[in-house]
User: Fold this.
Amino acid sequence: MLSKNGELLFTKTGTEHNVPFTEEEQRLMKGAITLHNHPVITSFSVKDVKTSSELGVAEMRVIDPAFVYIMKPPEGGWDKRLFDEVIMPAVEDVEAKLIGQMYDALQSEKITEDQFDIHYQHLLWMRVARRTGLKYSRRRRK
Assistant:
């Protein structure tokens, strides 16, 4: 966890699917930059975005073996209400369409299973960001 100025606030080790935070750590996250890794190539989980929006994180980053993903809240910030009323409905709507498109591409052999896994979450957040004002990007690791 980094402050807006890049100062280390704290580090935390969790399990493969969860990183629990104390109340004090959650308080420090407001306005901070969160950074965590994903062991496989994939963008943010819905849980990542939910937690960050509810805690008022200024920016979150995920690093996987191939990419660095960055997400920032829309103008005006984010909170639980925005997640529940704007972001999650957009996720559900985009997923309903995207999953069919991706499966069609997989069935017609336009993409492989590995490509499906690598690109699904990235495409999801690109489309949700366009609808909600989230600022989302992905770049290759150096």
